[in-house]
Design brief:
The chain is an alpha+beta fold. It has a single domain, classed as Immunoglobulin-like (Sandwich). 19% of the residues lie in helices and 32% in strands. The protein contains three helices and nine strands, in the order H-E-H-E-E-E-E-E-H-E-E-E. It has helices spanning 4-19, 40-49, 124-128, and strands spanning 35-38, 58-65, 68-74, 82-86, 97-104, 117-123, 138-143, 149-152, 158-160. The strands form two sheets. A six-stranded mixed β-sheet has the order 1-4-5-7-8-9, covered by helices on one side. A three-stranded antiparallel β-sheet has the order 2-3-6. Residues 10-29 have low confidence and may be disordered.
Length: 161
């Protein structure tokens, strides 16, 4: 019995040490990934505030390439300042439509007055799930800094709303 207690104590200590992670092995955020948020409240807040936003950016173009939605924007120094927000709803009308809004947060990173071009890439299959094929729905993409919307259909045809 006496030899079992030290062995159990050693096992507990080894288990505790094995389950700890050092800060050096913790994953770092991927600087190439664009922040994606699912929040109906945040989506509505951004849409309602965009008419009064003073710091604007431009959505130059959007394109679908298989499961990837590419959004060309102009504004700011770093594409990590952008977040794409989905309201979390799939409107099951015809055509099936999802609503996304792009917001720009100048408080992330260094302050910069440059107006650089960036390409934001969103993996639709990863972000929206696999319930629907991404080529079955329309996407309404809104600019979070001013009233301007684009719609892209399943064939990739883009129109202004």
């Amino acid at each position: 019995m006496r030899t079992i207690r030290p062995v159990l104590a050693c096992l507990v200590v080894l288990f505790a040490l094995a389950s700890c992670k050092s800060k050096e092995t913790a994953p770092t955020p991927d600087k190439n990934k664009i922040a994606f948020e699912v929040s109906e409240a945040e989506y509505v807040r951004i849409i309602n505030a965009r008419a009064t936003e003073t710091r604007t950016f431009e959505i130059k173009d959007i394109k679908r390439e298989n499961n990837i939605l590419k959004i060309w924007v102009k504004g700011g120094c770093d594409k990590n300042n952008y977040t794409v927000v989905w309201d979390g709803l799939m409107r099951k009308s015809y055509p099936l439509t999802i609503f996304l809004v792009v917001k720009f947060d100048r408080s992330i990173g260094m302050e910069c007055m440059a107006e650089l071009d960036h390409v934001l890439e969103i993996d639709l299959k990863e972000k929206l799930g696999e319930f629907y094929e991404n080529n079955e729905f329309y996407i309404q993409l809104s600019n979070g800094s001013k009233v301007f919307d684009k719609v892209i259909d399943p064939k990739g045809i883009v129109s202004n709303k």
